[in-house]
Design a protein that fits this description.
This protein is of the alpha+beta class. The chain is built from 13 helices and ten strands. The strands form three sheets. A four-stranded mixed sheet has the order 1-4-5-8. Strands 2-3-7-6 form a four-stranded antiparallel sheet, with no helix packed on it. It starts with 11 loop residues before the first helix and ends in a 7-residue tail after the last helix.
Amino acid sequence: MTTTLALGQDWSDLREAVAKICARYPGEYWRRLEDQHAYPTEFIQELTHAGFLGALIPEEYGGSGLPLRAAAVILETINRYGCTASQGHAQMYIMGTLLRHGSEAQKREFLPGIARGELRLQAFAVTEPTTGSDTTRLKTRAVREGDHYVVTGQKVWTSRALHSDLMLLLARTTPLESCSKRIDGLSVFIVDIRESLGQGLAIRPLQAMFNHNTTEVFFDGLRVPAKNLIGTEGKGFTYILDGLNAERTLIAAEAVGDGRYFIDQAVRYANQRVVFDRTIGRNQGIQFPLARAHAELEAADVMVRKAAALFDAAQPCGTDANIAKLLASEACWHAAEAAVQTFGGFAFAREYDIERKWRECRVYQVAPVSTNLILAHVAQHVLGLERSY
C-alpha cells in the first residue's frame, strides 16, 4: 500500500524573487531603523508593489490569489535572508476576517486598496492590559447608538497601528454576564485610523526589546459607523479564530526562516573561524547543537506545511497550526542559541546581526499565542485531559 504525503509546493520562483528584494536591505538598514525606532517603509512598499503582501487576496479584488503555503514561503524567505517579516506580515492575514466574513460591499471597498498598497490594514486591536490571553473577558465596549457604535476601552501590543490606515478591532457589544457563552457578545469592526485619530482614538508607541513598532491604543467615545461592523453583531470571536490559524501558521514559517538564518550564519562562521590552529566547525561542541537545531527546523517545517495544506483545503487546522507554532518557535530558539555559542563574543557585536535576530526570535514563544496555552490546548483537545484554565 502506497501513502502519498503532499507537503506543498516549494515555490522556488517566489523564494528567488523575495531573496532579491532582501539583498537590497542588508543588516545595516535594520540596525539603523532600530537606532531611530523607525519603520521599514521602503522595504514594505517594495514587497507590496511586488504583490507579495497581497498574496492571499483573491484576484477578483486585485490580489495574487495564492494559497497560504505560498504566503508562508514569502515570510520564511524574508527572515532567512536577514530581514524582518513581522513588520509587514499582518498586511497578509488580518484582511482574512474581512475576506471570509465581511459583506460584499465591505470587500469591494477595502480589499482592492489593500492589495495595491494604497490602504494599510496591519493593526489588530485585541489584547488588553488586564486580560491578556483571556480574550473573552476583554473590557473594551462598543455600544450601538443609531447608525454608529461608541467605543470605549484600551488595547495593548497593537503593533503597527501608527503605520496603518485601518485597524481591525475586537470589542464587546454585549456584557459578558448577559451572554450564555463566554465567546458570545464580541464583535469585529473596521476602524479608519485616519479619520479617528484625535476623535476618540489615541495611539502611543510602546518601546520593546526589539524594533516591533508596537503601540497602546485608547478609545474614548470613538464613533465607528455601524456599516463597519463585520458580519453579525456578537459573533466576532468565531470570526477571528480562522484568522488566528492563518496567523499562527505564517508566524511559524517566519520562525523556521529565522532558524535557518541562524544555521546559515553559524555554519559559515564556523567554517572560517580558526582557533587552536583549526576551524571551530570541526569541534563536535559546535557541530552537534547546529545539527540538532537543523533537524528540529526540518520537523517544524513539515508541520507548517501540513497546517497550511489543511487551511487551504478548508479543513480543521487549529491543532496543527498550534503545534507548528510550538515546534517552530522552539526550534528557532535552539538555532539562535547555537549561533550565539558558535559566534562567541562576536555574537554580541551589532555588526554581525546575531544579537538583533536573537532578540527578535524570542517573542515566538510568547506571541501571538504562548507556548503554555498551546500545550494546554493539546492536553485538553487532543489528549482528552481535564481543562486547566
